[in-house]
Design a protein that fits this description.
paralog of FGE (formylglycine-generating enzyme), 9 strands, globular, 242 residues, alpha+beta, four-stranded mixed sheet, three-stranded antiparallel sheet, disordered N terminus, 2 domains
Length: 242
Amino acid sequence: MEHKAKLKHFSKMRTIIIPLCFFVVLVAYGQDDPKPPEGMVYVPAGEFIMGSKYGDPDERPMQIASTKAFFIDKYEVSYAEFAQFDTNFEIPKGKENNAAVVTWSQANAYAKWKGKRLPTEKEWEKAARGTDGRIFPWGDTYDNSYVVWDRSSTRGGSIAKPESPYGCFDMAGSVWEWTADWYKPYPDNDTPMEQYGEKYKVMRGGSNFNNHSFIRTSQRYYILPEDIRAYPVGIRCVKDVE
């Protein structure tokens, strides 16, 4: 009888605990988050780990940074999408759904045309690595099957198709991605570099011909805004949460 009473008590407790757990899960997964525009994902406001202790000198110091809430494109902008903005733009044959390679001014103009903008470095890095300081968008261990290496591949064409913590694809490999920022040192970084200033724009994410150190979430690189002969650079837009 005592055993049956305990089972009955446990059964009643389950009816209370299970709905409570379900409620907690809903809250944890952000049931009240704003709905992203089509093709975008939501990144909440808050702090995250930015930079690296072990990367290149321009990634230092590792710091706690923060952003406001924003939406960011799930995929890089394709050639077909960019051609809707610039009807004179020539799409490489058979690459309509590949990531478009454009200059910074083309990327910036496209973003404005879409009612969006280019991401800051902080926004890009947060969307790529989340809040746990991960090395790659999918975690801390490199996996070649997670990366689009072949320029003939379409967006999201990696074998394993990993997402960043917020649901973005191809934030490592594929094409580099433009940011809004000039290439400048982080606060408290006293390592001199002659490239710092308002001459080069920062690009993020690496590309298909780079080794895996270039596709780390904290990796920064610089390029002249209108010269993309040496590097394929594309677009991933963001939008403010109103």
